[in-house]
Amino acid sequence: MALAAGLTACSSSGSPSGDGRSAAADPKAATGTVTVWLMDDAQKNWPDLVQRVNDEFAAKYPKVTLKLAYQGWADKVTKLDKAIAEGSAPDVVELGNTETMKYVLSGALAPVDRTTFENAGSWIKALANTCTYQDKLWCVPYYAGSRVAIYNSTAFQQATGNPEFPKTEPELLAALDKIADKNKADRTFSPLYLPGPYWYAAMSYVAASGGSIAKFDSAGNWHGTLHDPKSQEGIGHFADLVRRYNKGDLTVNEQNQYEAMARGHAASFYGNGYEAAGVTAPVTGDASLKDVVKVATMPGPDGKPLPTFIGGSDLAVTAKSPSVALATDWVRMFTSTKSEQALADKDILPNNLTQLNQLKNKPSTAAAANAVPDAWFTPLAPGWGAVEKQKIIPDMLTAILKGKSVDQATKEADAAIDQLINKAS
Q1: Which of the two ends of the chain, N or C, has the fewest CB atoms closer than 10 A to its terminal CB?
Q2: How far is it, in rounded angstroms, from Cα 317 to Cα 314?
Q3: Tens of pLDDT, residues 330-381
């Protein structure tokens, strides 16, 4: 593949110590250049952390040149692919955790030693899994993200007498039923707006039921497991919730679900924390809801918070960087306990459970933090990209909501997954 060929970093140095081999022995004598690509989230939200780490790196390696460039999510992958193809890739690159497998499979990333990073023993498992392939670690968890319940506290207050979001699913269902009854004159009003093809939500219920999308077997192959009893249980539960509480078009996906609440058609929905801001945005939403819309932990059917799809970012060192050791040490500094605490202090979920714990009781972060420990991620399989592209799971959910049995729909979905999941896409 083109990505695997000719990967030469733009930080090439003529110095024999440019690869950092002498860095550990004599950091003061190490020379070379380390180029880092970070997403512009860091520039906007934690520039002080970036500056501190860069200063720390410069103090340890005074003869090494550090070059930092900020990237935007819209065009980062295109730019990175082009840089790799042209032999001008950065030494360190931030990757969204759904992007990592593409670069692992193409040979674009260098393996790293987990034992050399602080808090590695308590890294959030699902986040660390996004960096792991064939028992090797190919990147380092940076920070996490999760989905939460987003709700109109006034709607809950008026129907139940309590503006708080219920903490258990039985309590939530009882509250949703009361909200449905209070708003029964409005046939477009959804107590819980849960889009039918919303597979991230559906698979959260699968995870809560002990099921999974696919598993890696002893023969070295992935195979779909949506037809397994526990997976079917979760899918059935999700479908029941959709039918019971979503009064909108059940075939519409979740991309603009915030609009249902912004337009007064929903009391709650399940989404990324930032979607709450969409509800109250002055132009696209309803600014009058600013003090009404809240976030909370979404309760699952097993008495625990609903497991969330783990979002977030990872940091990787490119495979043919001439400064691998130096680049890895920069990543080590940027993901240290001190650095992760700087993120936690800004309400960003850190990469490890130890520091995440302090955010579980903080009002601004409790909902997201409590959803993380049991988080799940998509199968780290060669053909997963093709499975997503073919929309196998959303189509399965739509078929179920149109009347196909869970048993038949999941059997067909597994067969379709099996055709694609083991082939590199």
Answers
A1: N
A2: 10
A3: 999 999 999 999 999 999 999 999 999 999 999 889 999 998 888 999 998 8
C-alpha distances out from residue 327 to 25, 57, 93, 110, 314, Å:
16, 10, 10, 11, 14
Residue type, 262: A
- Decide: 139 and 100 in contact? Cβ < 8 Å: yes
List CB contacts of 243: < 8 A, sequence separation 6 or more: 250, 401
**DSSP string computed for 269-322:** EEEETTHHHHHH-TTTS-GGGTTTEEEEPPBPTTSSBPPPBPEEEEEEEBTT-T
Residue-wise DSSP of 339-395:
HHHHHHTTTPBPSBHHHHGGGTTSTTTHHHHHHSTT-B-----TTHHHHHHTTHHHH
Rg (CA), the chain: 23
Residue 306 CA to residue 201 CA, distance in Å, equals 9
Task: Give the 3-state secondary structure of 124-152.
Answer: CHHHHHCCEECCEECCEEEEEECEEEEEE
- For tokens 């860069």, the residue is 54
Closest among 319, 325, 316, 320 to 27, alpha carbons compared: 325
Region 133-147: mean pLDDT is 95
d(CA 361, CA 363): 6
* Alpha-carbon torsion (2, 4, 5, 10), positive or negative: positive
Phi/psi region, residue 148 (left: phi>0; alpha: psi -120 to 50; beta: rest), is beta
Question: Phi and psi for 64 in degrees, rounded to 5?
Answer: -100, 135
Interatomic CA distance for residues 38 and 112, integer angstroms: 19
CATH numbers and ranges of domains, the chain: 2-145+310-371 (3.40.190.10), 147-308+380-420 (3.40.190.10)
pLDDT number for residue 23: 56
Could you report the per-residue pLDDT of 229-265, keeping only the tens digit for each?
999 999 999 999 999 999 999 999 998 999 999 999 9
Neighbours of 81 (CB within 10 A): 17
- Per-residue pLDDT tens over the stretch 10-33: 333 333 333 334 456 789 999 999
Please report, rounded to a whole number, the percentage of residues in the chain having pLDDT higher than 70: 94
pLDDT tens, position by position, 287-309: 999 999 999 999 999 999 999 99
Please say whether the beta carbons of 334 and 119 come within 8 A: no
pTM over 0.85: no
Q: How far apart are CA 308 and CA 88, in angstroms?
A: 36
